[in-house]
Amino acid sequence: MVALQDKPFRLTPQQFLEWEKTQENRYEYVNGYVIAMAGGTIVHNDLAVSLLLLLAPHLKLRGCKINFADVKVQIRRRYRYPDLVITCDDRDKVATQLFQYPKVIIEVLSPSTESTDRGKKLREYLSIDTLQEYVLVSSNEPLIEVCRRNSDGTWQYVIYESGNELRLESLEFTCAIDEIYESIVLDEIVEEAFDVEELEKS
After folding, report:
1. Residue 79: Cβ within 10 Å count
2. Residue 107's Cα: distance from chain center in Å?
3. Contact assessment for residue 158 and residue 149, using Cβ atoms and an 8 Å cutoff
4. How many angstroms separate the CA atoms of 34 and 81, rounded?
5. Which of 50, 63, 99, 130 has the most neighbouring CB atoms within 10 Å?
6. Checking DSSP bridges between strand 72-75 and strand 98-99, what pairing results, if any?
7. Where are the domains of the chain?
8. What pLDDT digit, counting tens, does each position of 86-121 carry?
9. What is the pTM of this model?
10. What gap in Å lies between CA 59 and CA 86, rounded to an integer?
11. Assigned superfamily of 40-190
């Protein structure tokens, strides 16, 4: 998800939920502040749709639900909009406004939100008792990172690249990374400029 740069303003959690019902756009709620969200790029949406289409048939057989972008997740007094959220909890299956018991959360990285997805959101999502895997999807190269909860409550970090099979163990789901990225035109990686003369002096 991409954050707009509008100045955030404050509401109570209940005020936010009531106010948001009247809004056309999506907003996240963090520490009392309302933060406007914008749509992603084409590649951002393409990757989210690709994962949605690959996961949906598998999850239907398991009795789980997957939602795309417009369903928020509650983390204590915060409300976030993941790119994809998967729940297998009966309490979420009858929810009408938000999920509270997700099993897997997926974020497609973008330049404006990558630091938040790897920082604040990572800490928030990993604090959810029911969460088993947090997935970060690169929009620059065929690369997916997974934070996976171990049986002892610790977290394991795994990278999957081109030629690998993505494994979401909590869902017993596997899929080739190259299939996820098939036919998707990725964003170019912007390399930092360097001074050739300075390099030659060193």
Report:
1. 21
2. 2
3. no
4. 12
5. 99
6. parallel
7. 40-190
8. 999 999 989 988 999 999 999 999 888 899 899 999
9. 0.84
10. 9
11. tt1808, chain A (3.90.1570.10)
